[in-house]
Amino acid sequence: MPEPASTIASLASALENARRALAILERQTAGFTSLSTPVSLQIELEDKREEVADLERRLNNAGFTENSSTPKAETHDAGSAYQNVDARKLREAMGTAFNKSDFIVLCFDLGVEYENLEGDTLPLKMLALIKYHQQRGIFGQLVEKVIRERPNLRESLHE
């Protein structure tokens, strides 16, 4: 028996709010390394990721499909098709395709503060961004964003 429309609307609203909260939590953790992230923040982030996944699952089971025009916050499993890209290739490709200004914009779009990334040079900041995404299990999101910004890199990353 299908879910009532009011239940689906309620779940969709809860999912939107959970995604917004998740995006904020991910931005908050951007300023920390995996070892320096406060435990309370890490737990809250993990719980929010589980909540988003659960709400998505419940909506899918209810037969709800999101309107493609609805903005969707990226979750920890977004970009999973790109999880197996070689990090060294990504670093090299980013180094040739992004200047400092472009990279700062990329960081902003990903919700990461450029100034909080470790390193004094652009290549070290790029490496720190890659490590940040790997440590959080969201490496695929970074690859996906880089390919969206620089489609010409797709082939070199999949060689």
Structure description:
The chain has 159 residues and is mainly α. It folds into two domains: 5-61; 80-157. It is built from seven helices and no strands. It has helices at 5-29, 39-61, 87-97, 100-110, 122-135, 139-149, 154-157. Helix 5 (122-135) crosses helix 6 (139-149). 23% of the residues are buried.
Q: What layout of secondary structure does this protein have?
A:
Layout: H1 5-29, H2 39-61, H3 87-97, H4 100-110, H5 122-135, H6 139-149, H7 154-157
Helix pairs in contact: 1-2, 3-5, 5-6
Q: In summary, what is this structure?
A:
By secondary structure, the protein is mostly helical.
Q: Residue ranges: pLDDT <50 for 5 or more in a row?
A: 66-78
* Fraction of residues in helix: 55-70%
Whole-number total of structural domains: 2
- Helix/strand structural class: mainly alpha
Using only C-alpha atoms, the radius of gyration works out to 17 Å
Distance between the termini: 47 Å
Number of helices: 7
